Amino acid sequence: MGHTQLERWFPGITKELVHGGAHLGTGTAIQYYVDGILRPNVPDAHMLGATRPFIEGHIRRRVLALPNVTIRTAQARDLKISGARVSGVRFSSAADDSTMSDDELEADLVVDAMGRSSRLGKWLLKHGWDQAPFERMTVDLGYATAHFHRGDELPDIVVAHSSPGPASGYQYREALTEPAAITALEGNRWGVVLAGYTNYRPGSDPNEFKARMRRSVSPIREIAERCELDGDIGTFHFRESLRRDFTELSRFPGGLIAVGDAVASVNPIYGQGLTVAALQASALSAYLRTGASPHAAAWSYFRRAGVIVNAAWQLSATADLAQHHVASHRPRGYQLTRWIGDKITEASIIDPVVNQAFMDVVHMRERPKTLSHPRVLLATARALSSRARLKSAPAQPQQTVRSDTGARTRTNNHGENRHMSALSFWSKPNFSGKLHSAESALEDPIDLPFPAKSARNNTPDEYYILHKHGAGADLWSSEHIATLAPGDTWNSEDDTAIGMYELHPVD
Asked: What pLDDT, on the 0 to 100 scale, is given for residue 406?
């Protein structure tokens, strides 16, 4: 949603950013893994791959090009209040308070964008106004960022993200795969982020950083193995989430609003900061378009902004409370909310309809209450019920058979013949195989791991998606491995590659 809002305020900014080196990921170029399992594709998803300074630099140039915008470099010292409204700010152009007296800048509307360390509350108290009450949640997050040189590896991926889920209890230390994320950046680089809580926070040692990457999902492992580190590793500590609720005040001066982290700063691991700020800018626009006087108390704006903050806070706080070390009070009904959330997350890993709804909420295109819609809950129940039937069915060897129509089918694990929209084989470690388009049958799935012919007619330009299935109870989930065409060879260099694979013809 943040990307959508940027394009709304700065038409053509996406094309400009991509022309400058950013990457626009859509569809399968965006990969989200939960407990090591790839979520279903969200066809209408789109994400920009670029560093924050790169994006902000382009936005700043666009803003400065506006004829009615002027930049003054100074340090705000205080508010100027006239009666019941803020009429300007007091500022100093010198870094040393003792060398210059404050100047004043008159204003119809003052915007506090000073971030989570905003001094607005102290200034309001100084002038006899109450500061907004705030809520804190200690999370003790640590994260580390690094850049790697980007070559021809993973040409079809812009974003890949791995996080713990229900199977690992959402715990980062005990995660089935290392929590991490990669993004293709300007300047032929990969941006890599690792995260952890308390004493599992990632450090700045390159060997440790790469070792953790190698414990993550395949795209992140590949960067660790094939790409060179570019520069130092940066480490950061985020102690707590906080939000200020201006709507709880009984009085507030006119001519003053707050945006961004000055209103709320949530756990950065969920990537909501820029989106929240962009949505608040839209809320301010909607407020001003109503014709409200900028000199009046902006209650309507704060209510609009509060809806945005509440959505981001609900998502991040619910997830953070799953961490054992987070000692904040669990609200009434939390256990039920957590249980429902777990089931929706489990279903989103295997069901495209549920995953679409889930990711719409994560990316703040929809409010969290969307996940309680009967359509989503029904799809969740159906997906989990289907998975339960597959798990409970008696295991039977898979066979290749011929149907009455002559099309190849296979017997699945609960004895039903299924039209062969996908062909299966078991791999051994460190094998390679070639995708054939001949009509010979699959006889030895180890020596010839790729099936010779699908139920559909092969054409020279037909492509296939290779999936690896999970192990044990997660056999019917799958991870995207590669996209292949007839004649392509795939080499497995991972000594843990043994498992069941499927090859799906692409429509």
From this structure: 28
